[in-house]
Please model this.
Amino acid sequence: LTYKKLSYDADKDLVPVAVLTDVPTAVAAGVQQPYKNMKEFLDWAKQHPSKASL
Model:
């Protein structure tokens, strides 16, 4: 937030009124990659941050 102190508590005073979007996400990789699931990909990405992109 841009203000140090607000006149309201966002957690208590605001409620959601609409869902604007719900987009499923897919992650795909070539079969030659060293990872076979999301955990392995995240581990690999941490070890190779300059090579990983989403």
